[in-house]
UniProtKB/TrEMBL annotation, chain B:
Record protein name field: ABC transporter ATP-binding protein
Tagged with keyword Nucleotide-binding: yes
PROSITE patterns xrefs: ABC_TRANSPORTER_1, ABC_TRANSPORTER_2
Alphabetized NCBIfam families for the sequence: oligo_HPY, PRK10419.1, PRK11308.1
Organism: Microvirga puerhi
Segments forming domain ABC transporter: 8-257, 361-600
Listed GO MF terms: ATP binding
From TrEMBL, chain C:
InterPro entries the record matches: BPD_transp_1_N, MetI-like, MetI-like_sf
One Pfam family here: BPD_transp_1_N
Keywords: Cell membrane, Membrane, Transmembrane, Transmembrane helix, Transport
Protein name per Swiss-Prot or TrEMBL: ABC transporter permease
Domain ABC transmembrane type-1: 95-305
Classification lineage: Bacteria, Pseudomonadati, Pseudomonadota, Alphaproteobacteria, Hyphomicrobiales
Membrane topology reported for the UniProt record: Multi-pass membrane protein
Superkingdom of the source species: Bacteria
Automatic annotation (TrEMBL), chain D:
Membrane-crossing segments per the record: 87-107, 119-138, 144-162, 201-227, 247-269
Protein localization: Cell membrane
Residues in ABC transmembrane type-1 domain copies: 80-269
PANTHER family, per the entry: OLIGOPEPTIDE TRANSPORT SYSTEM PERMEASE PROTEIN APPC (PTHR43386), PEPTIDE ABC TRANSPORTER PERMEASE PROTEIN (PTHR43386:SF25)
Full protein name: ABC transporter permease
Keyword Transmembrane included in the entry's annotation: yes
Pfam families: BPD_transp_1, OppC_N
């Protein structure tokens, strides 16, 4: 249902949104949890995905993939204005692409830009992007969906001053406390935004945000934890889950013993009590998975979940096959992100499971930046960490450190799993026939469970929305960003 | 007097402290009356129940006290009275003066306000008139500039002024009864003289009855009309002051009088009372004094029956079974004692030469030195082998500092200290350790001088161990020998200092000082913390030891009688300097320096007859701050002989040919002409 | 007096220098750095290097400290790496919240502490004293986080009267909402401190009651309320002022645990966040500010003390 | 009362007669014994049964189970071990460093004293808990780190108390006496002053035990104490706090045991201070506890 149709059933109201961390900048390319709540309200992307992964127009009215999948021709809407009042032109998109391809400024889009050779601007509202090699369609769409035009003039200051076309404009900010957005009066979507103002208030934790919602001090919690969401749902609040979850992955550093032993690693496919992990760690909000894909991903395959169900006997058999002694098997530590309560809990579950098969390990709990640093440097034997982009083109998973095919900080150079590198390559270069594509995906999946350097356990929600039942009109976003423009009071 | 109705009448007063165990009586059935216009003194050794009696009279005892008997002030019964009645009595009829003027005033309230607070509370004074009245009261107690003084806080007053303020406060409501509990014990002799004469004057002016509590028989003789002697919670003897001093009937009173050193018997050994006063918990059966009594010791009656107070003379009463018994003449019981004499002095042992000790005064942002406390400012002394040299002076004049500097405990600022001809000040620390063996120190406070966590045996052995001589000296045998020397038993070895009485501790301190076989003992007020009876024991011990071991003493004291008793030579110190130095008899017979004269005249003499006849010089003011000593002669602001010259020029030391006197004064009285002041006392004493 | 204040202010210098140097040393000893959190987990090596250079973190530690010190001397505490805002601004935004909590907690502590102390000191050893001592021990022994949890359980979860988490609402903007939000943390902190205060005040009251001047006051026939109210209380309250000041000073950075229980946005929490993100300038700034406030409060207390206690003359 | 070796047993008897102290000692002994012999008891603090997660107190699980289905009672028992050993280690460190520091600075004064006082100033101006957090950040989360961090924050209190004690004793006649007999500074500090300072130090040891337990729990509550799955009371309160709605007993029961332990140490400390005639140091060591 188009937004404006639903909007007729809703009434605008200032929205008070509780968030759990302050934003750090307004750059739409610094795509991280800390500005998830802002990006889609200050910026629009070229195209959008529906919840089931279908591409729909946004700032781009049309996109034509060129011959041999080596280019795409994008036509921009003509009635779009930046917040500054300047019209959107292909030059702005070009400037945006230029920033994205700069390693220092491209931030999270930089990796996606890897496929891009160059671009041309045939006219004010058309831009043609050329690729280095033939690229599968889905990968092209991901790029367009990821591209959120920034006004060329504002590119250098975008970190501190938003320069987008979004449904809301920045009205004010109190650092560490709140950000206020006002409806953009010249927004191009008719009937949107529904609500005239959004006020994001930073709460120091889940409990505080829940308390605010329950006491009526907030209308929406965005990005809260699963457990409190479930509790609030039981108490009559609405919980909205988006199509872009993360997948929790047990990451293994295969360069270190005992994980350089393949059988030993493979045993972990069976050692994950995925249901228990999901229930205890995430209050059951999410799905158990054996592959790093969300249901919306084209590579998703539920059969693997059955095949690699929790099974201590199979695990023991593999452990026995590994030829390692108990001593050798126990000689490592599980790195734990102490700041993130769910991973602390699920790490203990794994620890306990391992104890049952005779492997006694210790947890190495690190906080905050210390953990991130270790994780980025691959300085661990094994650790849990969420993987994003699991709803998009499968090879996007390779932007994540453990899945990276080049410069992998954990697995190091040369990549120890050439099969995996090849499988990603094959996915990246297979296009056209649906069967061929499917086969490439299947191959990748098989390689993943065999090499077993990363054992997915479950998907979980980022950007969970818990709201008062009086509100409606939530637009699901492929990346679970917060989209406010359609939200309003039920009439 | 006895015909009038008493202001205070106490009958069978018993006070016991309960606490948790069984109640311990500390005052055991005492009765006395106090009449208007008289000073009634209660004397007795520490712990005899004097303060408890006085607190009971005013109803100020803590709730743990169990009081019975009767106390009537005017027509009001105090025992069991309600709070309202007590408050009324206190506001109308009672004034109280406590021992320590430093703590009896509330530090955060203005003095004036505190003085008139009671009167204002009871509606006798309108708040608007309070200020004027406070100043008036302060003027009555001779405080200069009373108007502005009334606005000051207690810490801005000197000790003597505080006690005057307390007297003003106690007398503000013109009470019929004033209770003064050791009002001058914390003060110097000169200030004590000021305060006592003030008290006497105010008492006469208001015709109040005064109960004065003291342990100083000199003060009693000086001021009392009637006296009660307390021992172990009882009054053992009471009578007029003359009766008590001239014909004491209770053996305790007699012993007490004989145990104080007196100018008239310097060559006699002191007549100490043996043993310790009993504590309320360990009261002996029968007469509580019998274990220490010369007549009662052996008699069965004394051991079994406690004597009651009974009339002996007209006004005199005593609680002794044998009060009528004539005693041996006092002299006969005194073992003859060749006291210190100038003749025996040998080579000089210790020479102190122009010693100076200055302490920095720091102030300002960077704590810079802004001045110096001239604690010792040019002291010269010589102590010869086997002699006793005394250092006397008011509190704060630098006696302790001098002694500690000689010991090397405080660095000297200037001058020299020579021991057996060798300068001690520039010695290396190991040589200093060596030198110290010859020279030992006995401290004033027997409670603070012994390490409380060591058994006494170890306390005495410590110097030996520190010098690694324990084994050489004979180990435990040597310690036992030392114990014996000071009159203690080796059975006491394992005990800790807290298990000993003050006198015993002082003996332990002396034993420790003797451990290294020193030739010189520096005794810093060795007896001033002790009760008179114990004091006499320790003084005797010191004299015996001196004779036996050929010791030289540097004896520090502010008690002139003790000094007179002990010394060969005396040095009088004032504000860091020695103002007069001479052989004992010369200085006591013919004091030359006005300060010495004042000191001697201010000291109370335990002889009421003499007290009434002698003329006293009462010094004005108190000892100045040694950080800012007066210019010229430092004594001039208090001196009755000072003139313009004294104000400008500091006197140098003069010695008199033919006499042993050194004096630093521009106007000394000629030592060759015996001083009138003292001569009188000598006559009266004989 | 002015000299004294100046001297105390001079004392600030070594303490702050020492403190900031120690903090800097600690920062460099602590593993982890602010950049890793900032660049996110998909960052490449170049991105990390770029960010490190951008914040000047690639310079030698001493140079960084000297640079920080130089700027701090000019009133510039630097810019938060994580929030890209001036550190001072971040801190100043938190301070009102911190002061508000400290203020309310102090009031709670005084209201609970003083009467308890007086009631139990009037008759030491009585049953009133024993009961109050027990209460006192409880206030001191119950950890604030447990007490906070119990309060939340009862007032928020069970009775649903008060919010389980607190936010900062300025008292003057909406006193009711502010009090509703603050009352639980203020009580939690205040109860503990009331125990400290009551114990101290009781001890000093009992001590004063034994003083000679009290006996003197009684001997003048004053009413008991005069003796207690005018004589004893005045003396006992003097040292008490210092303790109250110390406690308030401690609230500034030290209410971390209470802030965590009630998720209250105070200075302590800011610092904890800064520590966990290794936001060096922010850590340094918070600590310096906490130290300065602590010292200033103490100084004010001492000056005030000198003002009310006639015996003290600072030169 | 001055504590001497000779009076140690008398002191012990006096403590046992003191009702509060006796009760506190009894409770602490039970906690200590249970902690010491936990290994011989029939429960396992690590054993998970996810199906039994967050079950209330029952016959099988006296204090209920936590989110991983572990027995909370078992974890409380093992938590006692963490708490007590941390406290003991921390107090040992604090005393071992603080006491000599206080002795030296009080005895010699001058620059040594000035340096110490600056150190104490800095420590005092920074809340202990923040200091401990920073230290743990350096050392990494472990029990050793907790011990060191808590121990260091306790140093100033020992240093201050010993210094004050030294200052008063320094000018006492019996100390001067030793000097007069030629005793060295060292001898005086360690053989004369220290043995006379046992009472305040001992009281402070007990006080600091309660502070250390509190601080350790507070650190764990903030998530920087000993690392999971090691049982720790503070950590249980931290986890339990997020299950207040579903499982209130989870935070309440471990908190109760923690509180009783702290109260016992406090009662013991006060009784000892009473008996020894020492001032009970009220300002603890600035842990928020605490504030
Ligand atoms: N409040 C009290 N509780 C228990 N015992 C007390 C109390 N006050 C005094 N005593 C005891 O009563 C006895 C008499 O004490 P009191 O103070 O009357 O002696 P004193 O003659 O005034 O001695 P001093 O010359 O030392 O002042 C002492 O043994 C003392 O220990
Ligand atoms: N360490 C010091 N620093 C500064 N001033 C000092 C020091 N020791 C003593 N004084 C001062 O030196 C002066 C002399 O003190 P000292 O103790 O020698 O007097 P005293 O004659 O022994 O007095 P008392 O009879 O009271 O024992 C006093 O004013 C005292 O305050
Ligand atoms: Mg007395
Ligand atoms: Mg002296």
């Amino acid at each position: 249902i188009p937004g404006h149709v639903r909007a007729q059933k809703l009434q605008g109201t200032p929205l008070r949104v509780a968030i759990l961390a302050d934003m750090t900048n307004f750059d739409p390319m610094q795509f991280s949890l800390v500005n998830f709540h802002l990006i889609k309200n200050l910026y629009d992307s070229l195209i959008e995905y529906t919840a089931d992964g279908k591409a729909v127009p946004s700032l781009a009215t049309e996109w034509k993939i060129g011959e041999g999948n080596k280019s795409v021709r994008v036509t921009l809407r003509k009635d779009v204005l930046f917040h500054s009042g300047a019209p959107l032109t292909s030059a702005d998109v070009a400037a945006t692409l230029k920033k994205a391809s700069d390693p220092a400024k491209g931030k999270n889009v930089y990796a996606t830009m890897g496929i891009v050779q160059d671009w041309t601007m045939p006219d004010e509202h058309t831009i043609v992007i050329n690729f280095k090699a033939p690229v599968p369609e889905r990968q092209i769409l991901d790029l367009l969906q990821f591209t959120m035009p920034i006004e060329a003039a504002g590119i250098d200051t975008v970190e501190t001053k938003p320069a987008g076309t979004g449904a809301y404009t920045l009205a004010g900010r109190a650092v560490g406390q709140s950000v206020t957005l006002k409806a953009n009066p010249k927004y191009w979507r008719t009937g949107e935004p529904v609500s005239p103002e959004i006020r994001f208030t930073v709460f120091s934790d889940d409990a505080a945000a829940s308390a605010a919602l329950e006491s009526g001090a907030a209308d929406i919690i965005y990005g809260g934890g699963a457990r409190s969401a479930v509790r609030l749902r039981d108490a009559g609040y609405t919980v909205t889950r988006g199509p872009g979850p993360l997948v929790q992955v047990f990451r293994i550093n295969t360069t270190r013993p005992p994980f350089n032993n393949e059988k030993f690693r493979q045993a972990f496919n069976y050692l994950m009590d995925r249901d228990g992990i999901l229930r205890v760690g995430y209050a059951g909000l999410g799905e158990p998975v054996a592959l790093p894909w969300a249901p919306a991903s084209p590579a998703s395959n539920p059969a693997y979940l059955k095949e690699f169900a929790y099974n201590l006997d199979k695990a023991k058999a593999l452990l026995a096959e590994s030829g390692l002694s108990k001593q050798e098997m126990s000689n490592w530590k599980l790195l734990v992100y102490g700041t993130d309560q769910p991973t602390v809990v699920i790490s203990q579950i794994v620890q306990s499971t391992l104890a049952e098969v005779g492997i006694n390990i210790q947890l190495d709990v690190l906080e905050g930046s210390e953990y991130v640093k270790a994780q980025l440097a691959g300085d661990y034997s094994a650790t849990f960490g969420g993987v994003g982009n699991v709803q998009k083109f499968p090879s996007r998973v390779a932007t994540n450190s453990i899945y990276r095919t080049k410069d992998n900080p954990v697995l190091k150079e040369p990549h120890p799993f050439p099969d995996y590198v090849a499988a990603i390559e094959r996915v990246n270069s297979t296009y056209g026939s649906e069967e061929k594509v499917k086969a490439a995906y299947d191959h990748l999946n098989r390689v993943l469970v065999t090499s077993a350097f990363a054992i997915p356990t479950n998907s979980y929600d980022v950007g969970l929305i818990v709201s008062s039942s009086k509100l409606d009109g939530f637009t699901p976003d492929m990346d679970n960003l917060f989209v406010a423009r359609t939200i309003g009071l039920k009439k | 007097m006895p015909l009038a109705k008493p202001v205070l009448s106490v009958r069978d007063l018993t006070v016991a402290f309960g606490g948790t165990g069984k109640p311990v009586p500390v005052v055991r059935g005492i009765s006395f009356d106090v009449f208007a216009n008289e000073v009634f003194c209660i004397v007795g050794e520490s712990g005899s129940g004097k303060s408890v009696t006085s607190l009971a009279v005013s109803g100020l005892l803590p709730e743990t006290a169990d009081v019975s008997g009767s106390i009537v002030i005017g027509d009001t019964e105090i025992v069991g009275a309600s709070a309202a009645v007590l408050r009324h009595v206190r506001s109308q009829d009672l004034g109280f003066i406590f021992q320590d003027p430093a703590t009896t005033l509330n530090p955060v309230l203005r003095v004036g306000r505190q003085i008139v607070e009671g009167e204002v509370t009871h509606g006798r004074l309108r708040p608007s008139e309070a200020q004027v009245r406070a100043a008036e009261l302060l003027r009555e107690v001779d405080i200069a500039d009373p108007v502005s003084r009334a606005q000051q806080y207690p810490h801005q007053f000197s000790g003597g002024m505080r006690q005057r303020a307390v007297i003003a406060m106690a007398m503000a409501g013109k009470p019929r009864l004033i209770i003064a509990d050791e009002p001058t014990t914390a003060l110097d002799v000169t200030v004590q003289a000021q305060v006592l004469s003030l008290l006497q004057r105010r008492q006469a002016e208001t015709a109040a009855a005064v109960i004065l509590i003291t342990h100083d028989l000199g003060v009693v003789a000086e001021i009392a009309h009637r006296v009660a002697v307390m021992y172990a919670g009882r009054i053992v003897e009471t009578g007029t002051v003359d009766e008590i001093f001239s014909s004491p009937r209770h053996p305790y009173t007699r012993a007490l009088l004989r145990s104080i050193p007196r100018g008239d018997a310097v060559h006699a050994r002191l007549d100490a009372i043996p043993g310790q006063p009993p504590t309320p918990e360990t009261l002996p059966a029968g007469c509580p004094f019998h274990p220490r009594c010369v007549i009662g010791k052996e008699r069965g009656e004394c051991r079994t029956t406690e004597p009651l107070l009974r009339p002996i003379g007209a006004d005199q009463q005593a609680a002794c079974h044998f009060a009528e018994e004539k005693l041996l003449p006092a002299e006969a019981r005194r073992t003859d004692f060749s006291g210190p004499a100038g003749e025996k002095a040998g080579d000089s042992l210790l020479e102190v030469d122009a010693l100076k000790v200055h302490f920095p005064v720091r102030a300002g942002i960077l704590k810079r030195v802004v001045g110096w406390v001239r604690a010792v400012d040019g002291v010269s002394l010589t102590v010869r082998v086997g002699e006793t040299v005394s250092l006397v002076g008011e509190s704060g004049c630098g006696k302790t500092t001098t002694a500690r500097t000689i010991m090397g405990l405080v660095p000297a600022t200037g001058g020299d200290v020579r021991f057996e001809g060798r300068s001690l000040l520039k010695l290396s620390s190991s040589r200093m350790r060596e030198a110290r063996r010859q020279m030992q120190y006995v401290f004033q406070d027997p409670y603070a001088a012994l390490n409380p966590v060591l058994p006494v045996e170890e306390v005495v052995a410590e110097p030996l161990r520190l010098h690694g001589l324990y084994e050489t000296a004979g180990g435990a045998a040597r310690i036992a020998e030392l114990f014996e020397m000071v009159g203690l038993s080796r059975r006491m070895f394992g005990r800790y200092p807290s298990e000993f009485s003050g006198g015993q501790r002082q003996r332990i301190g002396i034993a420790r000082a003797l451990a290294l076989n020193p030739r010189l003992l520096i005794l810093d007020e060795p007896v001033s913390a002790l009760d008179v009876s114990i004091q006499a024991q320790v003084l005797n011990l010191l004299q015996d030891l001196q004779k036996e071991l050929k010791l030289a003493y540097l004896f520090i004291s502010h008690n002139l009688s003790v000094v007179q008793h002990m010394s060969d030579r005396v040095a009088v110190m004032y504000l860091g300097r020695i103002v007069e130095q001479a052989a004992r008899d010369e200085i006591y017979r013919t004091p030359t320096h006005p300060y010495t004269q004042s000191l001697l005249s201010a000291a109370p003499v335990p002889d009421p007859t003499l007290g009434r006849t002698r003329r006293r010089i009462i010094l004005e003011g108190e000892i100045p701050n040694p950080a800012a000593p007066p210019a010229g002669c430092t004594f001039h602001p208090r001196c009755f002989r000072s003139d313009e010259h004294c104000r400008r020029v500091a006197p140098s030391v003069v010695s008199y040919p033919g006499a042993s006197i050194y004096v630093a004064c521009h106007h000394p009285s000629d030592p060759m002409i015996p001083s009138i002041v003292r001569e009188q006392s000598m006559e009266a004493g004989e | 007096m002015i000299g004294y204040v100046l001297r105390r202010l001079l004392h600030l210098i070594p303490v702050l220098l020492l403190g900031s140097a120690a903090v800097w040393a600690i920062i460099y000893a602590v593993p982890g750095d602010p950049v890793s959190v900032l660049v996110g987990e998909n960052a490449t090596a170049e991105q990390i290097a770029a960010a490190t250079a951008k914040y000047g973190l690639d310079r030698p530690a001493l140079v960084q400290y000297a640079d920080w010190l130089w700027r701090a001397l000019h009133g510039d505490l630097g810019t938060s790496i994580h929030a890209s805002e001036p550190v001072l601004k971040l801190i100043l935004e938190r301070l009102p919240a911190t002061f508000q909590l400290a203020f309310l907690a102090t009031i709670v502590a005084l209201v609970l502490g003083i009467p308890v102390a007086i009631a139990s000191a009037l008759k030491p050893g009585s049953w009133v004293d024993r009961i109050l001592s027990l209460w006192n021990a409880l206030t001191l022994g119950v950890p604030t986080f447990w007490l906070g949890i119990l309060l939340i359980l009862w007032f928020s979860v069970e009775m649903r009267w008060l919010p389980s988490a607190s936010t900062y609402i300025p008292l003057w903007e909406d006193p009711v909402a502010a009090l509703r939000s603050l009352i639980l943390p203020a009580v939690t902190l205040g109860v503990y401190v009331s125990g400290v205060l009551a114990r101290f005040l009781r001890a000093s009251l009992v001590n004063e009651m034994r003083s000679d001047y009290v006996r003197t006051a009684r001997s003048k026939g004053l009413w008991e309320w005069q003796v207690v109210g005018v004589h004893i209380l005045r003396n006992a309250l003097l040292p008490f002022v210092t303790i109250v000041g110390l406690m308030m000073a401690n609230f500034i950075g030290g209410a971390v645990v209470t802030e965590a229980v009630f998720t209250y946005p105070g200075l302590g929490r800011l610092l904890i966040q800064a520590i966990s993100t290794r936001d060096y300038p922010l850590i340094q700034g918070c600590i310096i500010v906490i130290m300065v406030i602590y010292i200033l409060i103490n100084l004010s207390v001492d000056v005030f003390y000198a003002y009310i206690d006639p015996r003290i003359e600072y030169k | 009362m001055k504590l001497t070796f000779g009076k140690l047993s008398a002191f012990g008897r006096a403590l046992l007669r003191h009702k509060g102290a006796a009760a506190a000692l009894a409770f602490l002994s039970v906690v200590a014994l249970v902690a010491a012999f936990a290994d011989f008891m029939p429960f396992d603090p690590f054993r998970q049964r996810l199906v039994d997660a967050l079950k209330g107190p029952s016959q099988a699980h006296w204090f209920g189970t936590d989110e991983l289905g572990r027995d909370i009672f078992a974890r409380v028992v093992y938590g006692a071990r963490t708490s007590l050993t941390t406290a003991a280690g921390a107090v040992a460190i604090a005393a071992a460093v603080g006491v000599p520091m206080g002795l030296v600075s009080g005895f010699f004064g001058g620059w040594r004293d000035a340096a110490l006082m600056r150190f104490v100033d800095v420590m005092m101006t920074l809340p202990a808990i923040l200091f401990a957090m920073a230290l743990i950040a350096i050392l990494g989360r472990s029990q050793i780190a907790a011990i060191v961090a808590v121990g260091i924050t306790g140093i100033p209190s020992f240093a201050r108390i010993t210094r004050a004690q030294t200052l008063t004793l320094r000018s006492r006649d019996f100390v001067v006496a030793v000097e007069a007999f030629g005793g060295s500074a060292r001898y005086n500090m360690f053989r004369t002053i220290l043995p006379n300072s046992w009472s305040p130090i001992l009281v402070q040891v007990v006080v600091l035990c309660s502070v250390a337990i509190l601080l350790e729990a507070a650190l764990a509550f903030l998530g920087v104490g000993v690392a999971p799955p090691t049982p720790s009371w503070g950590e249980m309160l931290r986890s339990g706090k997020s299950y207040l709605h579903e499982a209130p007993y989870y935070a309440v029961l471990p908190g109760l045991i923690l509180t009783l332990t702290i109260l016992s140490f406090d009662a013991l400390g006060r009784a000892m201070a009473d008996l020894l005639g020492e001032r009970y140091e009220i300002r603890k060591s600035g842990s928020e506890g605490a504030a």
